[in-house]
Amino acid sequence: MKTKILYITLFSILVFQMGCTEPYEIETVDYEKVLVVESTITNEMKPQVVKLSRTSTLENPQILTENNATVTVSGINGETYSFSQDNETGFYISNEAFSSQPNIAYTLEIKTQDGKSYKSSPVTLPPVIEMDAVYAERIEDLNEDKDGVQVLVNTEDPTGNAKYFRYEYEETYKVVAPNPSPYIAEIINFDVSNYTYDVILTPREPEEICYSTEYSTGINQTTTKELNENRVVRFPVKYLSKLDAKIQTRYSILVKQYIQSVEAYTFYKILKELGSLESLLSQGQPGYVAGNMVSEMNPDEKVLGFFEASSMTSKRIYFNYADFGLQKPPYFVDCDVLVLDYRDNTTFDNDANEREVIFTYLSYFNYQVVNYGQPYLFTLAKQECSVCTSISSNVRPDFWED
Known about the structure:
The protein is mainly β. The protein folds into three domains: 4-127 and 263-310, no CATH class; 131-176 and 212-256 and 319-324; 183-202 and 333-390, no CATH class. It has helices at 9-16, 262-275, 354-363, 383-386; strands spanning 4-5, 26-27, 29-30, 35-42, 49-54, 64-65, 70-75, 80-85, 92-94, 106-111, 117-120, 131-141, 146-156, 164-176, 183-191, 196-203, 209-215, 221-223, 231-241, 251-259, 288-289, 293-295, 303-319, 338-341, 367-373, 377-382. A hairpin with a 6-residue loop joins strand 4 and strand 5.
C-alpha cells in the first residue's frame, strides 16, 4: 500500500522568497524508504558522528536506523577518516578523534549494505566566532503567558564573515530528594495462599543528591543577513517557567553556537517550516527536501539530509531560582508522605490488614520507608521523592560548581 504525502503550496512559495540562497525543491511524493543523513563535523577535537536512517510513514513514524553501512569522511588534503556503527545508539562514530580544519574541503561518502553509494558536496569550515555573552533574565510577559527565566545569547562578528547561526544546549540540574530513605525495604517469605510475608529493613546511605542532563531538540537558528549590524542580540535559547522543577535547587546550561553555511541554514530553515522537527532522524514528516547528499549510482534517487562543517563555540552559566527573586518551584512529583499507624488505627479502617497494606504500597505503589517505629508505625514516601537515582544519576558531573 502506498501512502500519499502532500505539501501545502505555501512551502513552495517560501523557497523562492529566500533570495541569495539556492532554492531547495519541495515535491509531492509517494512514500519511499529514503535514506536520511544527519552529520555536522566541527572544529572540536573529538570523535565525529554520522547518523543514518530511513524515512517512515506518517501513520507509523519511527526511527529506522540504517545498519551496516560503510562511512568515511575525506579531506581535500588527503586525510580520510573511517566510521564504525555504535551498538548502543546505532550512530556511526569516527574511529579516531579529529577536527575539521579551515580551508579544507570535506566530503562524506556512504555505502549501504545493499551496495548503493552516496556522496555529499564538498563542505568547508566557516570562521570561528566566540559568543560575547550567555546570560539569564527574569521574564514576565502576559501576552506570551510567560513568567520565569529566559536564557539569552549575544554575539557579534565585525568582519561580517559569519551571518548564519544555530544554537543547541545541554542543561544540567541538581536533584535533591525531599524525603530521603535511609532503608532498603525487602519483602521475603511471601506466602501467596495466606498473604503473609516479612519486611526486612536494611540501613543504607540515602540517595539524596543527584544530577540530570538533558539535551536540546528541534532547530533553533537565526541570521544577521537582513540586519544593519552583524550582531545577534538577546537571542532566546531556553525558557524556564518559574514552576519548572529543574530550577528547584541549582541549574546549569551549556550553550553551543554553530556557525553555518548559507546552504545548511536554508536546509534546516525549510525543515523547520515544514514541521518543527525534533530531529532529522524522526522522519514521519511530509515530503522531501533536497540537501547536499546524492546517489552516485542514480542521480534521480531521493536522499534526505545534510552533511555540514560548522565551527562551534560554547559557554556555560549557572543560576538558582533565588537569583531572580522567585519562590522555590515544586518538586517533580507530589511528595506527600504516607503514615501507616496501626497503634490506634488512625490511618485505615479497623479491618485493614497491616501486612496487606504495607505489601501493597511497597510492591505496587513503589513507596520507600523513610521512617518507622516497630512494630506499628511506618512513614512511606514515593520512590521519586526518596531515592533520587530513580529519576536521575548520583554521579556528580566533573564540571559541576555549587
